[in-house]
Amino acid sequence: MENSPLQVLTVPTAPYPDQRPGTSGLRKRVYVFQTRRNYLHNFIQSIFSSIDLRDRQGSTMVVGGDGRFFNRTAIEVIVQMAAANGVGRLIIGHHGIMSTPAISCVIRKFKAIGGFILTASHNPGGPDGDFGIKFNTANGGPAKEAVTNKIFQISRTIEEFAICPGLRVDLTTLGKQMFDLENKFKPFTVEIVDSVESYANLLRNIFDFAALKELLSGENCIKIRLDAMHGVVGPYVSKILCEELGCPANSAINCVPLEDFGGQHPDPNPTYATDLVDSMRDGHYDFGAAFDGDGDRNMILGKHGFFVTPSDSVAVIADNIFCIPYFQHTGVRGFARSMPTSSALDRVAKATKIELYETPTGWKFFGNLMDAGMLSLCGEESFGTGGDHIREKDGLWAVLAWLSILATRRQRVEDIVKDHWIKYGRNYFTRYDYENVDIDAACEMMEDLEIMIADKSFIRQRFAVEDKIYQVERADNFEYTDPADSTISRNQGLRIIFSDGSRIIYRLSGTGSDGATVRIYIDSYEKEHIFEDTQVMLAPLATIALKISQLHHRTGRSGPSVIT
């Protein structure tokens, strides 16, 4: 406890017009937060001001981040402003580090009113990289649109913020720190907690750790390779997979969180997780996985680097869901996928007579269904998979789900996936990302594209590429009515659906910090030809997608930045 009460100040400020949170919070280049006066303070105050004072007074909130550059600076400001804004207790991860799934877990466990997640997810870090702030609400999930809109409106008119500039917290020491503030009856408490333990305990109650330990360190154990990509998951992998489940320490690579992720792009896909992909090629390892910066995304690989698409991953987990003890106890309430994700999950839902929901991109839509007791398992094509144990996608949970399937079925990853295709047919799926495109050119292209597909003459148009002919059956701008609360979300992506069920989808992504990212998703179902090369099978649809949009001409790009 400090000797004399700390002073609370009200500081005048001026608003910025560009603090609208996207699907994953506010993401900008680090230099924006560093060089624009009070830019960080304004956004933090806008979040606090969006919460009713009666709810805020004496409340508990959670803070953590993926350890990227500017993390500690932002935490210091959040602590000082939380104290000044009436928050009673902050729970912070040791050294300020806590994965996004763990923060969701801790918010729910301690009945906090919300939490600050300091991450730009899979975007690069370091002084020249990105930084982000995401606000999660009391359910542990991302704030809904009504909340983020309120935060944005406040940020546009903000005139002052409250702060306690003399307050200093030691992030290196576990335990409680208490501070007396001017004109406050109760001390302000900061609790530094073990970043892993609450989350690890949750996983122990979901999975059969004894069976997993036998799989990973028993007599007939499999060899696995896990790449934390110098993100936040490193300590979780070391503690849970290595120390507790018995994996050799050298099974895990890049496990020390670094402010710049070792100069790499912490994005778990075949393009960026090259350390893992290269190490899997020779067949030494039976199972591989990579995680992104904040630990909510995952990539699954089998022996010799066999790649499991995220769309297939959630479908396979759904088809084997009772390999996970948690679902044996709770039952399965529903499945869901984001609209751009392939419809592989739909086929499992239909066969098992379990309700399937198609939502816009953004985990908050899944969270709403979970809160209503309608959803148990969900996934996105952007390497996100999760269950209703928390309200975020969860990379480590997905890996343990896959390992639970391997422990039960005792087959190779590749054989499990190929058996799935034989049973259900295969959805060939790919995504083309055009990053850092001029935002005006991107918006103009999307507007013209929407006008084209909305014209009645577009329906039933035929497109021929080589010996393939595709006829348009339906085209629209995806609109979602939430079955839990009837809220409507419009303009969620342009869809062209052909008579054979194939789909082309165009979206502008909201997760970048610079320019625009145009995404083209291509999804095509095959019952017979299930063992072909994805890009070869989808080449005709890719040609059609580029022809319709004229994307290369409109954006000046000759090809995508990333293909997944």
Describe the protein.
GO terms for molecular function: magnesium ion binding; phosphoglucomutase activity. The chain folds into 3 domains: 9-194, Alpha-D-Glucose-1,6-Bisphosphate, subunit A, domain 3 (Alpha-D-Glucose-1,6-Bisphosphate, Chain A, domain 3); 199-424, Alpha-D-Glucose-1,6-Bisphosphate, subunit A, domain 3 (Alpha-D-Glucose-1,6-Bisphosphate, Chain A, domain 3), CATH 3.40.120; 426-563, Alpha-D-phosphohexomutase, C-terminal domain (TATA-Binding Protein), CATH 3.30.310.50. The protein has 19 helices and 27 strands. By secondary structure, it is of the alpha/beta class. The protein is 34% helix and 25% strand. A hairpin with a 6-residue loop joins strand 22 (480-481) and strand 23. It is globular, with a radius of gyration of 24 Å.
Please give a handful of descriptors for the protein shown:
564 residues, alpha/beta, Alpha-D-Glucose-1,6-Bisphosphate, Chain A, domain 3, TATA-Binding Protein, 3 domains, seven-stranded mixed beta sheet, seven-stranded antiparallel beta sheet, 25% strand, globular
